[in-house]
Every structure is written in structure tokens, then in C-alpha cells.
Specification:
With 166 residues, the chain is an alpha/beta fold. It has one domain: Alpha-Beta Complex (YbaK protein), CATH 3.90.960. The chain has helices at 2-13, 29-36, 68-75, 84-91, 136-142; strands spanning 19-21, 43-51, 54-61, 79-81, 109-112, 122-123, 130-132, 146-148. The strands form 2 sheets. Strands 2, 3, 4, 5, 6 and 8 form a 6-stranded mixed beta sheet that branches. Strands 1-7 form a two-stranded antiparallel sheet. The protein is globular, with a radius of gyration of 14 Å.
């Protein structure tokens, strides 16, 4: 259903964007970068967070780490990562396929400014083997995202996230 909800999202809002489906998994930044032959930074990872009582999505470059101090300054509180079941329940997408498109529930979407360094990024498309190629600006427009600065300066290495706790 998740890949189908993303298909429907693009069919209704942007039919020119094609979903790329691969036979191999692209569930991690490293796997996705290798499969799509791009730098890890070009993989747009979508993080599911709970801030106070609100669930939000933050899309960052694949090799970025969240900066807890910046996150708290932007959202007014500490945040925590959702667990696997919460991610599926809120987004409708499996971990490794989470994206800001075709969501199960309407959620606020935020894009980190680090994405603007790329002309094109590859977020997942609702499955662990799917993605789309899209400009960060267009992704933000289609998802009605707000641009924020919540990643560490000089991000550019693997390692995912710094711990985000309550």
C-alpha cells in the first residue's frame, strides 16, 4: 500500500516524476547511494520525530546528523525518534522507505537547508527499494515543507543521527 500511496501522490500532483524501483534494497543511505550511483549526501533521508505531542518529518541530506541544540531552538523542545511501529502507523511507510509523499496521516514536513546544496536528491518512495529523483525545492513545494537549519555544521559523513532524546 505504501508504494501505491506514493504513486497516487505523484499521479495527482506531479505526474512527470517517475518512481524508480530497483531489485536491490535501498533501505539505508549507504545502500541507496551505491544503488543510485550518487554521493551519500544526495540521498534525502526522512526522519520521523516526536516533538512535544506532535509527530513531524524532517528531511535531511543522507550524510547529515541532526544537531540537538538546533533542533530544540527551531522546535522549542527536545525531540525523540519514533520507533518502528510508530513510524509505520504515522506515515504508512516502512522504515527504509519513509518519505514525505503519500502519507497515511497529514504530518508537518521540514526540509533541512543542507539539501539545497544539490540540484537533485533521491528520497525514498514508500518502499525499501524505491526512490524518486527530484530537486529539493520541488520536493519542499510538493510537500508544503518548511525550510529549517537543524543539522550539524560540516555534516558529510555516515553515521546517521546523533541521539535525540526526551
Amino acid at each position: 500500500m505504501s508504494l501505491e500511496s506514493v504513486r497516487q501522490f505523484f499521479a495527482e500532483r506531479s505526474p512527470d516524476i517517475e518512481i524508480i524501483e530497483l531489485s536491490e534494497s535501498t533501505a539505508t543511505v549507504a545502500l541507496a547511494a551505491q544503488a543510485h550511483h550518487v554521493d551519500a549526501g544526495q540521498i534525502a533521508k526522512t526522519l520521523s520525530l516526536k516533538v512535544k505531542d506532535q509527530v513531524i518529518l524532517v528531511v535531511t541530506r543522507g550524510d547529515a546528523r541532526l544537531d540537538n541544540r538546533k533542533l530544540k531552538a527551531v522546535f522549542g523542545s527536545k525531540a525523540r525518534m519514533l520507533n518502528t511501529d510508530e513510524v509505520v502507523n504515522w506515515t504508512g511507510h516502512p522504515v527504509g522507505g519513509v518519505c514525505p509523499f503519500g502519507l497515511e496521516n497529514p504530518l508537518p514536513v521540514f526540509c533541512d537547508i543542507s539539501l539545497k546544496r544539490f540540484a537533485e536528491v533521491l528520497p525514498a518512495a514508500g518502499a525499501t527499494h524505491s526512490a524518486v529523483r527530484i530537486s529539493p525545492t520541488r520536493m519542499a513545494e510538493l510537500t508544503q515543507a518548511t525550510w529549517v537549519d537543524v543539522c550539524q555544521e560540516g555534516s558529510g559523513h555516515y553515521g546517521g543521527l546523533s541521539p535525540v532524546t526526551d
